[in-house]
Structure formats: structure tokens, C-alpha cells
Amino acid sequence: MLTVDPHPLLDPVAFTSTFPAPLGDLPAPEWLQALLKPGATAPLQSDDAVRGAVRDLLRHGGYKPTGRGKPASEYLVRASGDGTLNTINAAVDACNAVSLHSGLPISVVDLDRAKAPFRVATAIQGDSYVFNASGQTIDLEGLLCLFDTEGPCSNAVKDAQRTKTDPTTRRTLTLIWGTRELGDRTARAFAWYRELLERLGATVERVG
């Protein structure tokens, strides 16, 4: 289902989640929403060393992870701090909570919109995709991406619009963009993530 091209820094964890109902019928419970607030108690905390290691991971292929192209996990820190990290649904909120506190970017794609098999590789010149409903695109050259049969569909910065979850989603593929520079942080993030999802009634299966 998933292959990963050799990479000296990448330490990914990928898994599927099957939810008991469409995401539109699964609002995040209060305990999960509380994890999106500044100062929430969590088993992992991010810091400057984590942020630097994640940027080094994305920089390896020639990508520049700065400005609007910085890792998604950094946006979450800012949004949580200024109170704009709002609840979306149980699946997205769980992703955001783990990414916020671990400092690791995380991609989530709808398994019924993306087309297997999947591959993790560095995007080449000319690779791009639309990342929001208004049609904005991101240039992917040099950036680690998840590819399906149609091309790149997610990465540690912005996920493609064509494979994003929506209210009808029941099955997802998640990829934690971890780095070997941070030891067992990816595994620890996955363990906590799995606990959250199973508490929400989801079935989690590791892949790759």
C-alpha cells in the first residue's frame, strides 16, 4: 500500500483509521478540543530543537521551509496561541492536537478520494497541486511528499485539496513526518495519536 524512498533523515509513521461514522457526524468531544488550547497537558512538548530538526528534514531535498512554506506544525502553534485553532471534526482535531504538542507535521488524506498505491518521495521540478478551495497552488520541488497514483497529494506543509477529508469521510491515511534527529519522538507521537483515535471509536492499523 505504501513504499518510502530511501532518505537519510525521514522517520515516518503511516497508518489507516476507520471511523464509526462519517466525520460530519463526529464532532470533537470537549476533552479533545481542550488539547488544542495553549498550556494543555500532553505527553509531548515541542521546542526550538524540534522545530529546527523538522525544518532540516524538509530542507534536505532543496526545499526552503520558511515564510508561507513553513511546516504545518508551526502554524498550529501560532493558531493555538492566538485562539484561532478552532475545532473541525474529531479526526482533524486529533491530528492537530498531536502535531501541535509533538511539533511534528502530520498529513491526513481521505482513503476514498486518494488512489492507492502510495509512495513517499521528494517532489521534482514542475510538481505542484491545489491546496485549498479557492484554487491556490504550492510549488513542491524539493519537498518530501506523499504520492498516490495521480501524483503528489500531501506533505508536511500543506495537503492537496483533492484528497482532503470532508464531512463524508470514514477512512483516512495518516502520515507523521518524523525525523531521525529526534530519536523516538515519531513513535511516541504515534502511540499517543493511536490512544486518542481509539478513544474516539476509530480502528487504527499501521501500514508501510
TrEMBL record:
Domain spans labelled B3/B4 tRNA-binding: 53-202
Chain coiled-coil ranges: none
GO molecular function: phenylalanine-tRNA ligase activity; RNA binding
Superkingdom of the organism of origin: Bacteria
Gene3D superfamilies: Phenylalanyl-trna Synthetase, Chain B, domain 3 (3.50.40.10)
Any Pfam family matching the protein: B3_4
Name of this protein: B3/B4 tRNA-binding domain-containing protein
Organism expressing this protein natively: Corallococcus sicarius
